[in-house]
């Protein structure tokens, strides 16, 4: 049944899409920024109502941290304050809809992400000063490396071989043109800007500033892209409604579901629920990204290889040249690759769970990867992975079912890595990939009730009815891995 909050949320989202064309016509930088900030404040008030006060407290707490604290540590202070406030909201607020939490989650990513960017800029500045004092003003990466090797830059963001030193080196050229001292008004504008406020996708502070300094969004008509996204959203909506009507989620609450059907039926009933959950997420993100495309936000030359959430990853000199010379800008091809949220082939085929997670809400995954996994703490990758999963779980809303999702996925990921190291999976890649993919689907189907249900007692009752099947399988796989490793250690000791 459609509620009042649903109507307000989606009407405000459609209104933001409709105003995108008028927004593009505003030439003055200050007027455009004020227009976007004012519209964002209005959207926040319409959806959150009196709960908007919490976004203001979150904002002003971060402003105090950013303006008054040591820049080398503001990312940790901002993260701690914002995540504690999100936990307070989840425990002490009577939030009747997810829409209020979605907006506060977006604001949290923007504010803490800004603090991380300022800290990284400070590290780059200190690095340059140290080398200048030594008589070596050379940056970590040369201009030739940053401009002529875009593929290696993309690999830096897509692999786990991204060291802390390479992070500083990569950001050297990327942050050289970014404002590192945002004013209070800058922070307020970035926080409440209407583009991406409903649920994302996330974009960096540097991307926000580039939007006002580059002409890419006004060079062509993006209406066709917006119409294509909206048409896909309509088709997905009809499919979503048809599946929901045939397989309602309310069945989990009925007694007949547990007494008239076997465990196999109850487990397989998760499949249509998983499909509807994916469809719902894709519908929302299609509409959210339509706000971007209609407003001309997030469009970059194809040669700069924009990455989801990050922006251009190569050819920074070309980006600067195209921003200042119209003749160069008109010669380029453009895309909205920065806004890509889902990689459907990896979602469907995998083969590993890490491939699926990387393909899900990619800008948000980028945020947690670059900020919590790579730059929050110094530790081994297992601990950093656990901290990143915990941060994501707290951000999503601390609850029993969210902790089940977080812990299960973390164990599954590391079991995949463990078995890949124990056995030479590259020698028999296809069979191993099939096995990994089956286990991945088995896990995702099993976890579906945690995504679609909110009642703790119903979730516990459901898992009791299928005997916590997947967790039993995980336990056996863990024991098998321990036994195999122990036998190999003993064999190696006897040689």
Please identify the oligomeric state: single chain
Number of domains: 2
Shape by Cα distribution: globular
Q: Kindly report how far apart the N and C termini lie.
A: 69 Å
Average pLDDT number: 85
**Helix proportion of residues, in percent?**
over 70%
Major sheet details:
2 strands, antiparallel
Poorly predicted tracts of residues: 137-173
What Rg is obtained from the alpha carbons, in whole angstroms? Answer: 24 Å
Q: Tally of extended strands?
A: 2
Which band does the percent of strand residues land in? under 5%
Q: How do the strands of the widest beta sheet line up side by side?
A: 1-2
Structural class: mainly alpha
Element order, helices and strands?
HHHHHHHHHHHHHHHEHHEHHHHHHHH
List keywords for this structure.
495 residues, mainly alpha, 25 helices, globular
Structure, briefly:
With 495 residues, the protein is mainly α.
List the helices and strands and how they pair.
Blueprint: H1 4-18, H2 20-24, H3 29-48, H4 52-68, H5 74-92, H6 98-133, H7 143-148, H8 150-158, H9 164-175, H10 184-192, H11 205-213, H12 223-246, H13 256-259, H14 263-268, H15 270-295, E1 300-301, H16 316-324, H17 326-330, E2 334-335, H18 344-349, H19 353-358, H20 362-373, H21 381-397, H22 400-422, H23 429-452, H24 456-465, H25 469-494
Antiparallel strand pairs: 1-2
Helix pairs in contact: 1-3, 1-15, 3-10, 4-5, 4-6, 5-6, 5-21, 6-9, 6-10, 12-15, 15-23, 20-21, 21-22, 22-23, 22-25
């Amino acid at each position: 049944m459609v509620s009042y909050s649903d109507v307000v949320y989606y009407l405000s989202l459609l209104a933001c899409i409709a105003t995108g064309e008028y927004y593009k016509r505003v030439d003055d930088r200050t007027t455009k920024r004020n227009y976007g900030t004012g519209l964002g404040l209005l959207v926040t008030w319409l959806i959150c109502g009196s709960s908007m006060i919490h976004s203001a407290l979150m904002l002003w707490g971060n402003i105090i941290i950013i303006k008054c604290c040591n820049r080398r540590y503001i990312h940790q202070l901002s993260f701690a304050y914002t995540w504690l406030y999100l936990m307070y909201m989840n425990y002490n607020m009577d939030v009747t809809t997810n829409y209020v939490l979605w907006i506060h989650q977006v604001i949290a990513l923007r504010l803490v992400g800004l603090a991380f960017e300022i800290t990284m800029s400070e590290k780059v500045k200190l690095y340059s000063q140290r080398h200048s004092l030594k008589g070596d003003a050379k940056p970590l990466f040369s201009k030739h490396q940053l401009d002529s090797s875009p593929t290696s830059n993309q690999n830096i963001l897509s692999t786990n071989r991204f060291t802390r030193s390479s992070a500083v080196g990569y950001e050297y050229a990327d942050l050289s043109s970014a404002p590192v001292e945002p004013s209070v008004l800058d922070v307020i504008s970035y926080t409440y800007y209407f583009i991406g406020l409903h649920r994302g996708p996330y974009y960096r502070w540097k991307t926000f500033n580039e939007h006002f300094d580059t002409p890419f969004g006004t060079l062509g008509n993006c209406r066709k892209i917006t119409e294509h996204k909206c048409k896909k959203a309509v088709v997905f909506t009809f499919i979503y409604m048809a599946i929901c009507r045939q397989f309602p989620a309310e069945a989990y609450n009925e007694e007949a579901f547990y007494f008239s059907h076997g465990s196999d039926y109850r487990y397989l009933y998760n499949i249509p629920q998983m499909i509807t959950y994916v469809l719902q997420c894709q519908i929302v993100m299609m509409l959210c990204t339509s706000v971007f495309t209609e407003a001309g936000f997030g469009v970059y030359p194809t040669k700069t290889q924009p990455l989801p959430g990050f922006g251009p990853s190569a050819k920074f000199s070309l980006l600067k040249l195209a921003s200042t010379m119209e003749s160069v800008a008109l010669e380029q091809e453009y895309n909205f690759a920065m806004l890509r949220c889902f990689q459907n082939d990896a979602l469907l085929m995998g083969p590993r769970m890490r491939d699926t997670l990387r393909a899900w809400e990619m800008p948000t995954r980028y945020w947690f990867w670059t900020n919590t996994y790579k730059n929050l703490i110094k530790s081994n990758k297992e601990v950093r992975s656990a901290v990143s999963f915990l941060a994501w779980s707290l951000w999503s809303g601390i609850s029993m079912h969210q902790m089940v999702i977080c812990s299960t996925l973390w164990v599954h990921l590391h079991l995949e890595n463990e078995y890949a190291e124990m056995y030479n999976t590259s020698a028999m890649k296809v069979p191993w990939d099939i096995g990994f993919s089956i286990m991945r689907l088995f896990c995702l189907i099993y976890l579906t009730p945690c995504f679609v249900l909110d009642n703790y007692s119903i979730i516990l009752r459901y898992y009791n009815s299928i005997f916590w099947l997947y967790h039993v399988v995980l336990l056996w796989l863990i024991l098998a891995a321990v036994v195999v490793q122990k036998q190999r250690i003993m064999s190696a000791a006897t040689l």
